[in-house]
User: Fold Phosphoglycerate kinase from Stigmatella aurantiaca.
Amino acid sequence: MIRYIDDMQLTGKRVFIRVDFNVPLEGRRVTDDTRIREALPTIRRALEMGGKVILASHLGRPKAGPDPKLSLEPAASKLADLLGAKHEVILADDCVGDGVKKQVRELKDGQVLVLENLRFHKEEEANDEAFARELAALADVYINDAFGTAHRAHASTAGMVPFVKEKGAGLLMRKEIEYLGGVLKNPEKPFVAILGGSKVSDKIKVIESLLPKVDALLIGGAMAYTFLKAQGIEVGKSRVEEDKLSLATKILDAAQRLKTAIVLPVDHVVANEPTEKGVKSETPDRAIPADLMGLDIGPKTRAQFNQHIRNAKTVIWNGPMGLFEVEQFAEGTRTVADSMANNRGAVTVIGGGDSAAAVQQMGYGDKMSHVSTGGGASLEFLEGRELPGIKALETK
Ligand code: ADP
Ligand code: MG
Assistant:
């Protein structure tokens, strides 16, 4: 069982919240504050409940010790703007040590203490026990709201948790667990999964985990060509993983045994090169001419996928349908997003970093039941793996 912040008693307690403030920076400017805004409900809730709020996050990949370019200062000042004048945000100059302990002791009601970048200490990623204990000593309650790093067993996501009296999940973490967990555990049927993206090899475990659960598996993106080639269909210059052809055949056979429909593209958008300058055309059927490459699903495939999505009660999507970063190959990805958004009666969930980015960029973000904030973490969750950061929150 996992406790959530709402069910806990926080008055007067030191509440250590692991947030994901790993935001993109240009110099000292936060260029996208989505992650900070997504942590706000949990931070506000902890403050309303009378907790003394301590926030911890990593930022980037500092190589050797403290790096001023990767300070959490820009994130802390962005947070101060978002929280408004009622709350003072203080940035500590480290995340452990006597200075930090003193700042925690002196924290007043309504103030928020942001610890400096956890990864300024190599012990964070090494999940060092002494370091984990030092972090734990700052807290009465541990809350994890950083789903994006929940697939890593680091000191702040896993190591410190047993050393804090109480533990629970924040509101963002709760939404991730409820939606991603919900589609895996008890999806309302028909349950349709759409998989795409660049490589079959990245998604094998997701396919294996979803295959027995779904009614239909729609496959688009570059990974579709490996499946088509495995069936003896000509795919031209499309991206194919030659060493995964026999695996693709095995997956198709397994689907047949499970009576799960695997729906592959029946036509394609193709071009001579994968750029804006590529001369685009559509194929009449599944085969791709020898000198061309498949870069998006074609109109007949879009219509078929739409039909499956329209009739579903649960839809999970991971992996773009084409090279969506180039506008002339984005239509398949857009159509899938649109079909999902228009199925108001269904639970619609997006996992995967590029898929989430595509959905947000195309303006469908708030029309889905849930767009996961964790790229790698959401994939591992869909693989059916136990994430260390979530496992650490389990109580009997
Ligand atoms: P996610 O991050 O959502 O799990 P992936 O990382 O697996 O997705 O795949 C995303 C990438 O796949 C995108 O950069 C997209 O351009 C690429 N892609 C999808 N279809 C094709 C294709 N037909 N040819 C080349 N690249 C493709
Ligand atoms: Mg990706």
